[in-house]
C-alpha cells in the first residue's frame, strides 16, 4: 500500500477508534477504550469495551472489535489501533493479546494512541512471543 494511502488509513482508524471510545460502557472502571481494525479487505471495523456488574463478564474493546469484524464475515486484519484518553499509553491485556494473535499475523502492528496524540506500536509477536495459535493444533 502506498505510504500516503497507509497514513490516511491510520488516521481513519484513529478516528474510528475514538468514535468507538465515545460509546464505551465502563461505569465500574471508568477506563474507556475504543479500538479499530483494518481488515485485509480494506474495511474498518471498531469496538469498545463493555463492562458488566458481574465484572468477569467484561469484554475489552480489542476483542469486541475483532468480534465485530467476524460478525461482518471478515477474519483477517492488517492492523489494529486502540484509543484511550489515558496519559499513560496502555498495551492490550493478556486476554486480548491471545485473541489478537489468533487473527493478526505475527508481523502485524498494533498501535495505542491517546488524546494527546501520543502513540506506541508493537508487532503482534512483540506483544505475545511464542503465542499459542491455530498452527499449534495441527
Ligand atoms: Zn483486553
Automatic annotation (TrEMBL):
Transmembrane domains' residue ranges: none
Recorded catalytic activity of this chain's protein: cytidine + H2O + H(+) = uridine + NH4(+); 2'-deoxycytidine + H2O + H(+) = 2'-deoxyuridine + NH4(+)
Keywords: Hydrolase, Metal-binding, Zinc
Tree of life domain: Bacteria
Pfam family membership, one: dCMP_cyt_deam_1
Sample GO molecular function, one term: cytidine deaminase activity
Domain CMP/dCMP-type deaminase, chain residue ranges per copy: 8-135
Keyword Cell wall biogenesis/degradation appears in the UniProt entry: no
Enzyme Commission number, as recorded: 3.5.4.5
Essential cofactor(s): Zn(2+)
Family per similarity comment: Belongs to the cytidine and deoxycytidylate deaminase family.
Chain's role: This enzyme scavenges exogenous and endogenous cytidine and 2'-deoxycytidine for UMP synthesis.
The protein's name in its UniProt record: Cytidine deaminase
Organism the protein comes from: Thalassotalea fonticola
Amino acid at each position: 500500500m502506498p505510504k500516503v494511502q497507509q497514513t490516511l488509513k491510520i488516521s481513519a482508524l484513529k478516528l474510528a477508534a475514538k468514535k468507538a471510545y465515545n460509546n464505551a460502557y465502563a461505569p465500574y472502571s471508568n477506563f474507556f477504550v475504543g479500538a479499530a481494525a483494518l481488515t485485509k479487505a480494506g474495511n474498518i471495523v471498531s469496538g469498545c469495551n463493555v463492562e458488566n456488574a458481574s465484572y468477569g463478564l467484561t469484554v475489552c474493546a480489542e476483542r469486541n472489535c475483532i468480534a465485530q469484524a467476524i460478525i461482518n464475515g471478515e477474519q483477517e486484519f492488517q492492523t489494529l489501533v486502540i484509543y484511550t484518553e489515558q496519559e499513560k499509553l496502555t498495551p492490550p491485556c493478556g486476554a486480548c493479546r491471545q485473541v489478537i494473535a489468533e487473527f493478526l499475523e505475527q508481523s502485524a502492528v498494533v498501535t495505542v494512541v491517546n488524546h494527546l496524540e501520543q502513540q506506541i506500536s508493537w508487532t503482534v509477536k512483540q506483544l505475545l512471543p511464542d503465542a499459542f495459535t491455530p498452527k499449534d493444533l495441527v
